[in-house]
Design a protein that fits this description.
With about 400 residues, this protein is α/β, with parallel strands linked by helices. The chain is built from 15 helices and 14 strands.
Length: about 400
């Protein structure tokens, strides 16, 4: 048995819920390891730092500033303070626990000090689950610059990023393009410490029966006789919301399709104003739903949508792909050319891809989706999910390093 510590920015109150991190941690617990989690409880929750002891995990909820769904200044300050807050909490609550393995994900990159503290104290192995390449992603979409006053901020975070990579015994990347980018832009990293460790889950069939599909569509006022394209998840700058709006404009007179956007984020207000001022019969906007309701809603749709800003030079790989695959629906991705998510979708035989600066290209793949054999694509999605994104594979990959 090993003691596993997971440091995260995600809101983890237990590991029984479904999700890429919870599923991985639950697998460690099922294999007989002791799981410890350090997760934030943001100031808006008005909770003090506290410990939650579950049968399969011990979760330390650390009081932090507001990090998610807030302005950039508050988020930046809270992210910088996170490191010292985590170290203090670990010293207080986990002083008597010797950890064998530290897992941590990006974002954020500002936990290097906490990783270093545990690595030195316990001689623990360290494994980075790289989900975000920051600060380059912020530079790509214009939030940060490499020069001028904002350049100081970039250099600060870039130094943190390099330190985190140096502290990591192994770096698990979401895709081959992700791994290649890291090595190309960080030649100081030995190639042997970088591997592909994709977003993975415990596969569950989330598809619905024809009767359930009908009831769900009626509940949300979704047409029964249209091909329904659903986007679910964050609606922020990385998603390239202006391009999404251009695509919806171009499709406003298409009577064969219906677009459903479900989510929240910094750009939600912009999208909400668009829906109010440019009304169309073939689209609907919903705020984020509880996960169980959202999963059912997605399964009642026909095609899952993924959007990424075309300016990205870093190869993102959104985890919402897995939700669509579990629901058994094909996927249409409109992204920058640097990510390989489109290649995976097309070569896997379960979807379509276009660049996220070509509205006519998007309209073309929408028509392809309307004409396609969805039954065959659904089968391909499930097969690909089982063969490539089963959490057991990642567990074996990580545990073999300890």
């Amino acid at each position: 048995m090993r003691n596993i510590l997971f440091l995260t920015l995600s809101n983890v109150a237990d590991i029984d819920a479904s999700g890429i991190y919870q599923d991985l941690l639950r697998t460690f617990a099922k294999k007989g390891h002791k799981v410890y989690v350090v997760s934030p409880t943001e100031r808006r929750n008005q909770e003090k730092t506290h410990l939650i002891e579950k049968e399969n995990a011990v979760i330390l909820r650390v009081q932090t500033g507001n990090i998610q769904k807030t302005n950039l200044i508050e988020k930046g300050i809270a992210t910088v303070l996170l490191e010292s807050q985590y170290i203090s909490a670990i010293k207080k609550y986990f002083a008597d626990v010797k950890f064998d393995l530290v897992l941590y994900s990006t974002p954020p990159i500002t936990l290097a000090g906490a990783v270093q503290y545990i690595k030195k104290r316990d001689r623990a192995k360290t494994y980075l689950l790289l989900k975000d390449i920051f600060p380059q992603n912020a530079v790509d979409i214009g939030v940060m610059r490499k020069t001028g006053l904002k350049g100081l901020l970039y250099r600060y975070f870039r130094a943190k990023e390099k330190k985190l990579y140096a502290l990591s015994d192994h770096i698990g990347c979401m895709s081959p393009a992700n791994a290649a980018f890291i090595l190309r832009h960080n030649p100081q990293i030995p190639a042997g410490k970088v591997e592909v460790c994709p977003n993975c889950i415990e596969p569950v069939d989330m598809s619905v029966s024809p009767e359930e599909r009908l009831a769900i569509r009626e509940k949300y006022g979704i047409p029964l006789d249209k091909k329904v394209f659903v986007y679910g998840g964050n609606l922020g700058k990385p998603q390239g919301v202006p391009f999404l709006m251009d695509c919806l404009r171009a499709q406003k007179d298409n009577a064969d399709v219906f677009f459903l956007i479900v989510g929240d984020g910094t750009e939600y207000g912009k999208l909400e104003r668009f829906f109010e001022t440019e009304k169309a019969e073939n689209r609907k906007l919903l705020r984020s739903l509880p996960k169980a309701e959202y999963d059912l809603l997605v399964a009642a749709c026909d095609v899952g949508l993924i959007f990424l800003d075309h300016r990205f030079t870093i190869p993102n790989f959104p985890s919402r792909l897995l939700a669509y695959m579990q629901a058994g629906i094909p996927v249409l991705a409109a992204t920058d050319p640097n990510t390989d998510i489109g290649k995976v979708i097309v070569e896997g035989g379960f979807g379509w891809w276009c660049e996220s600066n070509e509205v006519q290209g998007f309209c073309g793949v929408v028509q392809q989706a309307c004409d396609a054999d969805h039954a065959a694509m659904k089968a391909s999605a499930r097969t690909y999910l089982q063969e490539h994104y089963d959490v057991e594979k990642n567990w074996h990959k990580i545990i073999d390093h300890t």
